[in-house]
Amino acid sequence: MKGETSWISHCFDDMSKEIGGLDSFSELIDEGNKETAAVSVDLILPDDLLERILAFLPIASIFRAGSVCRRWHEIVSSKRFLWNFSNVLSQKPWYFMFTSSDEPVGYAYDPILRKWYGIELPCIQTPNWFIASSCGLVCFMDNDSRSELHVCNPVTKHCKKLEDPPGLKFPDYSALSISVDRTSHNYTVSVVKSKQVPGNFFQWNLSIHIYDSETRMWATSLTEVLTGWRGGDESVICDGILYFLIYSTGGGTPENRHGLVTYSLSGRSSPLLRSFIPVPGPLTCGRLMNLKEKLVVVGGMGKQDRPDIIKGIGIWVLEGRNWNEVARMPHKYFQGFGELDDVFASSGTDDLIYIQSYGAPALLVFDMNQKLWKWAQKCPVSKKFPLQLFTGFCFEPRLEFAP
């Protein structure tokens, strides 16, 4: 057990220095009587009850709790605490925003405490790497060879490098996704590769490669030639189904420039175009995400007369083969981004969707349950030069998941 928790203890030491200010637990204690209250809690509560109380705190507060005293540090570092923590309500997803176009640096936003934390991401070398997340784990893939992959927990810094995936080298397009089983903690990584057939713009080689963490092996599940369509860089796994966007190579109407295809990871169905689902209207771009095993698309809506110009952003949920519109971004929020391009960053999990423009650090949050739009607390950085770009991804802050 000591070996299993040593890296967690190290993480608590690091994070307790980075997270400042009162957290939701210490705010319950009267400012003028903190030490007395803390001592009385220590004397009265047995370990198992204190574990259960601490397990319901926001994750940033748990890090602070681990630096209160030796007893609390041992509790939040224990294997039993991690088990209790994994069985309470999920932590709200954080959003990591890259604040440099060259360096993989930035801040993570906690929507519960409405705070930004400066954390370092392991493995990743530049912000333009492909990124996918699920249940506390994040997968990074390099943007050059599309062969270097790492799976890590960005909170604990525990990281694992995967074997290079098989298939095409240096594909023209790649789509990355990961799915973690909350019970077994095993995970599946998929990479969809797409490369143009030499001399033929209308035909594209497409292949799907699946990594199983239990066997630690890659398998090429499908190799197919698409005519009139190509793969892209958007994919996600929901309830055992791999979804990814494909794009017309025949120049069709704006309504038919994008499409969605599905691929069962267990049934391994083909050909792909039999599963074709039209996207909900003409989109300038589409972002796929898994929200409670439901496929959600956030898309930029093009103008009727000029489909390449974005007029708004919508959110849809796939029900069977039909799209159910959940919300459209109110105009006042859409204007708040300033120069919102036809392409933007968006990701989500659980009940939260994050949307941001590449041109500014403003971050908008949509709550699927409450159907509520809200600006995140202002990021502690500002735009320093006109061409500075911002992007990001969301992830669940979990302690118990490790690659």
Automatic annotation (TrEMBL):
Superkingdom, taxonomy of origin? Eukaryota
Q: Can you give the residue ranges of the F-box domain?
A: 45-86
Q: Which InterPro entries match?
A: Beta-prop_At3g26010-like (IPR056592), F-box-like_dom_sf (IPR036047), F-box_dom (IPR001810), FBXO31/39 (IPR045048), Gal_Oxase/kelch_b-propeller (IPR011043), Kelch-typ_b-propeller (IPR015915)
SMART domains, sorted:
FBOX
Q: What are the protein's UniProt keywords? A: Ubl conjugation pathway
Family matches, as SUPFAM superfamilies: F-box domain, Galactose oxidase, central domain
The biological pathway it contributes to is: Protein modification; protein ubiquitination
| Name the record gives this protein | F-box domain-containing protein
Species source reads: Gossypium mustelinum
